[in-house]
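Let's practice the habit of predicting before peeking. Look at the sequence and jot down your guess about where helices and strands might fall. Then scroll down.
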Amino acid sequence: MAKLDKDSLANTFLIAVFLCLVCSIVVSSMAVALKPIQQLNKELDQKKNILRAAGMLPADQDVSADGRSIEELFAEFTVRAVDLQTGEYVDDVDVVTYDPIRAAKDSATSVALTPAQDIATLRRRENVSLVYLKATASGIEKVVMPVRGYGLWGTLYGYLALDGDLNTIAGLGFYQHKETPGLGGEVDNSKWKASWQGVRLFDDMGQPQVKLVKQRSASTNPAASYEVDALSGATFTTKGVENMVNYWTGDDGFGAYLKRLRSNGLAQG
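Done guessing? Here is the structure:
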């Protein structure tokens, strides 16, 4: 009987193929086993960002100041799907699995934006998005909306929260972006994010008027209530954030929805 040549090309090839198959099986098995955990982590991270934008969870903390967990805090919110054109709720959308960003990439579930509309450089906008509501018997206490817009190097993804009057910003935070550390990346700076709290959003005509400026107006100037400090050395990111906020709260974003809430008497104050 001929001896097996362990050093032959054929034997080496067979061993390589065998090892590749084993590794593929192991990696595939691990991916399947870890997928539920990854999904739970993704959902937990989303809840953290929503709560932080709403000012209900301190930065870098997993419990509130009074010791409540993320799940306890998020249980106070109701998630609804919203038709962005009409501002009406959509009840036949599964808010647990629905992804507005994915919907925006599909021509069947989104609309193309004209250059005049597309100040946030989105190209397409989903027909239906999600909102996160914290309400009391007297009306809306917080509204958190997913927002996105192009900065310098790519799209910034985050959440914008409004107080119950639907005209005062409660917070703004980003969970994904490609901006330059130390410059546009300062959108993650806790001090800068805190400066958004209390900023007015709409003028007397109901139009969003947020401005990111290098030098704030005097406190006696009505314009000061709409102003936020620009990011030093990050002109494109600064303009991108300004355009993003004004787009998503305007007529082509959540504007119709916010107007509907006001007309239904759900705004507080």
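How did you do? The longest helix spans residues 9-53.
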